[in-house]
C-alpha cells in the first residue's frame, strides 16, 4: 500500500494523504464535486454546529446547577452537558487544525457521553419498575460515584494509545504523524480496535438503550392498564386525582426516551458502520472513489457531532418543566415580562412547583 500526496482546496490546511492509491504525484481532488462539497460542508456546518452546541449545553448546565430540585438525573444531565461541550470544542480544534490532541479529546468525551447516557437510562428503568426501593438504591452520592468511575474507565481505555502510537515520518508529506507503530500494534490499531471502539461507542449502548426503552414502555403500559382496572373503586377515586400528573410524567419520560434513542441511532449509527467499513472492505482505488468516500465520511462525521449539540433542544422539546426551569433561571434578563406571563398563565413559582420527579414511580425522570 502506497501513500500519495494530493492538492486540495484552500479550505484545508496542509496536504491530505491517500492510502492505497497508485504512487503518482500531483493528484488533485478539486475536480470532483463531491470532494468540494465535503469541504464546504465542514467549512459552513462545523462552526454553526459547534456554536449552537456549546451555547445550548452551557444554558442547560446553568439551568441544572441553579435548579432547587436535586436528583440523580441532574447529576447525569450535568455530566452530559460538560462532555458534549468538550466534544464541540474538539470539533472546533479539528476545524482549525492547530491542536494535535483534539482527536483524543473528542473520542474520550464521546465515549464518556455514551456511558453516562446508558447509565441514566438504566436508572430510569430501575426507578419506574421498583419505585419503593429506588429511593434507597438511587442516591446522589452513588450517582456522583458512577460519574467519576466512568471517567476513570474512559481514561483507562484511552491511555493504551500512549503505548501503541508514536511519531512516524512520512516522506511524501515531509512531516511527522502520530500513527500506530509497525508490527502487532499496527494490526491491533487497524483491525481489532475499530471493532472494540464501535461496540463500546455505538452498538453496545444502542442495544442497551433499545432494550431498556422497550422495558420501560411495557412497564408504563402495564401501569396504565392497572389504573384503568381500579376505576370505580373508592381507592381509585383518591388515586385518580394524582394519576393525571403521573400519566403526564410518564408521557414525558416516554417522549424523552424515544427522542434520545432515535437521535442516537440516526446520528451515531452510520459513523460506527463507516469506521469498520474503511478498515475491512471499502478501499478506494482511484481519486474519484477516494473523493466519494471522503464525502460520505464527512456527512456521517458531522452527524456524529450533531448528536452532541442536540441535548438542550431535546430537553426543551420534550420537557415542559425543563422549559419552566429555563425561564426561571434566566428571568433576571426580563423580570417584568416573566412576571406578567407567570401571572397570566397561573404558573406556580419554582418553590411551589412540584419537582421534576413528579412521583415515586418516576424518581429520576428527565422533564
Provide a descriptive summary of the structure in words:
There is one protein chain. The chain is mainly α. It contains twelve helices and five strands. The chain has helices spanning 33-66, 72-96, 102-129, 131-137, 140-158, 161-164, 184-229, 234-280, 287-307, 311-318, 320-329, 335-345, and strands at residues 3-7, 16-19, 27-28, 165-170, 175-180.
Q: Which CATH architecture?
A: Up-down Bundle
CATH class: Mainly Alpha
**Which geometry do the CA atoms define?**
globular
Return Rg in Å.
24 Å
Strand content: 5-15%
> What's the count of strands?
5
Strand order of the largest sheet: 2-1-3
CATH superfamily: Rhodopsin 7-helix transmembrane proteins
Number of helical regions: 12
Low-confidence stretches: 1-25, 239-246, 346-367
Fraction in helix: over 70%
The sequence of SSEs as H and E is EEEHHHHHHEEHHHHHH
**Largest sheet geometry:** 3 strands, mixed
Number of domains: 1
Mean pLDDT: 74
Q: Assign the CATH topology.
A: Rhopdopsin 7-helix transmembrane proteins
Q: CA-to-CA gap between the ends?
A: 53 Å
**Strand pairing plus helix content: what structural class?**
mainly alpha
Keywords:
367 residues, Rhopdopsin 7-helix transmembrane proteins, three-stranded mixed beta sheet, 12 helices, disordered N terminus
Chain-wise SSE layout:
Blueprint: E1 3-7, E2 16-19, E3 27-28, H1 33-66, H2 72-96, H3 102-129, H4 131-137, H5 140-158, H6 161-164, E4 165-170, E5 175-180, H7 184-229, H8 234-280, H9 287-307, H10 311-318, H11 320-329, H12 335-345
Parallel strand pairs: 1-3
Antiparallel strand pairs: 1-2, 4-5
Helix pairs in contact: 1-2, 1-9, 1-11, 2-3, 2-5, 3-4, 3-5, 3-7, 7-8, 8-9, 8-10
